[in-house]
Structures are given as C-alpha cells and as structure tokens.
C-alpha cells in the first residue's frame, strides 16, 4: 500500500486559498462539522455588510471544550489554547481554530502567502496578520456535529504545536508583524467583536 506524506492543515489551506477562484473563499473541515446550507448565507451577509470585515469565523467554543462531546485530550487542548490566545494575544475573536471560515478572497490571498506555517497554527497566524492590518473579523455561533471517529492528532503533535505557539509569541510574532505592515497595531481592544447567533 502506498503511503502518503502528511503536509499539515496549514499547507492544505494555503494551497486551497491560492488556487481558489471567485470573490469569497469558504474553508471547511473534511468531516463537515458545520451545516453549510444553514450558515453560509448568513455569514456571507455579514461579510458583505462592511468592507473592513475580512472574514467571518464560525465559533462553537462551548462544545469544543466539552469533555463529553470531544474527549479529554481534545477538550483540554482547545481550552488551553483559548486561554493562551486571550491572555497573550488578546484577540477580539473567541475561536480561531474551528474549521469553518468565510474570507474575502483578496484579503485571504494577500496574507496567506505571508504565513510560513503548515500546521495547526496557520489559522491563528493568518488571523493575527489580518487584525494587525486593521481588518475586522465577525463571528457566528454555530452548532457543531462531532463525528464519532478517533482524532488523528497525536500527543506529540500537541506538544509540538504548543512549543511552536510559545515560540511564535515570544520570538516570531513582532518580527512578522513589522515585516508585513509599517505600523504594528497589536491588541486594539476597540475592535472588540461579539459573536452572532444564528
């Protein structure tokens, strides 16, 4: 049997965004955890409402941190990264990791090529760059359908991602933001965003 190399979530998203056509780009996990028919049009309306809005993120943090729904390891990891994001980055976005997002294609393509990350931190870094540039991100509360399948994320990958996250915060972030923009606009709390329930 032929073995296929895993290039990572970020690698796949970058390629998808690069080759995508059209004005808007929807990214979604392969197991389709979110009902596209139910949420796509409301998300599109939010995106069209204001040109400063670069993307609309689906959020389901309560379910993602629920041990009963997702298992101990995945729920703890989601909770830890939420706390880290809020304390260290102070993002006006509650959930960067859920795999259901709608982007303005031009903005996504612009910043996607600047993200040198092929793993799970791709979403976080892309979000950081867009917010730093002055764009806004809307959020929509969604219902997630958890598939009863074993997670492909190993403990080793979790440790590696945590290390890369700390390295990004401590060493890489400031350099990347200054490289991408003339003026670094980190942690602008005036861009606070409330999630919309649909």
Features:
198 residues, alpha/beta, 5-stranded mixed sheet, 8 helices
Topology:
Elements: H1 9-19, E1 24-28, H2 36-49, E2 53-59, H3 61-64, H4 67-70, H5 72-89, E3 100-104, H6 105-112, H7 122-132, E4 136-141, H8 155-180, E5 196-197
Parallel strand pairs: 2-4, 4-5
Antiparallel strand pairs: 1-3, 2-3
Helix pairs in contact: 5-8
Architecture overview:
This protein has helices at 9-19, 36-49, 61-64, 67-70, 72-89, 105-112, 122-132, 155-180, and strands at 24-28, 53-59, 100-104, 136-141, 196-197. With 198 residues, it is α/β, with parallel strands linked by helices. A five-stranded mixed sheet has the order 1-3-2-4-5, with helices on both faces. Helix 8 links the parallel strand 4 and strand 5. The longest helix is centred in the C-terminal third of the chain and has 26 residues, at 155-180.
Radius of gyration: 16 Å
Q: β content, as a range?
A: 5-15%
Helix tally equals 8
By DSSP, the count of extended strands is 5
Helical coverage, percent range: 40-55%
Query: How far apart are the first and last residues' alpha carbons, in Å?
Result: 45 Å
As residue ranges, the low-confidence spans are 183-193
Largest sheet: 5 strands, mixed
The residue-averaged pLDDT reads: 81
Spell out the helices and strands N to C.
HEHEHHHEHHEHE
Structural class: alpha/beta
Strand order of the largest sheet: 1-3-2-4-5
Which of globular, elongated, flat, extended, rod-shaped describes the shape?
Answer: globular
State the gist of this model.
This protein has 198 residues and is an alpha/beta fold. It is 48% helix and 13% strand.
